[in-house]
Amino acid sequence: MKSSVIIFPGSNCDRDMDVALKKFGFENQMVWHNDTDIPKSDLIVLPGGFSYGDYLRCGSIAGKSRIIKSVIDFANSGGLVLGICNGFQILTETGLLPGILQQNKYLNFICKNVFVKIKNKENKYFKNIKKEVLELHIAHNEGNYFCSNDELKSIEDNDQIAVTYCDHKGNDDEINNPNGALKNIAGVFSKNKNILGMMPHPERMIDPFLSGEDGSLFFKNLIEN
Known about the structure:
The protein is α/β, with parallel strands linked by helices. It is built from 5 helices and 11 strands, in the order E-H-E-E-H-E-H-E-E-E-E-H-E-E-E-H.
């Protein structure tokens, strides 16, 4: 399975993602944001980081990069597109995913492990993961997911909520919401489930020396599907 990771000025998780993908069997390539063509791929990843220093809005400048047209064309053709953290922000800026990522509720940068509950397994990203709750890592200042009432109804009706913040038992109530995200939303799908954006970093949890391996379950499942 072939993958491509898009690098933007300010990306800081692109190499982490490259390591994770290769560890679980992907044939990965790194693609510079100013290129116009993406090599033949089964999966495109927009990694975490602080593209363009988060000037204007997070992901807004990266969303206008030359490579984005190819990413949009690939996504619209049914290709798998994964956006993590800043990549999630870029996907909302381009309109590939609904909603926006606002500044965290308490106006502080959050960097810690969190638990997320898988809400939909009818997709290639989570299909055969046996666990319902994963421990992953977040590191963001703008992870507060928000959308209009009409958008919320649409994503709920179409089962587009991918993961929600929760405790180790899967309780996704307000007390387990680290950033104020609407409905504890930590990740969402596109309508046909080929595009996934989420704030937690699975690539940071692929080895016990990195404080956990639940990210391994994510990548193993993805390449098997």
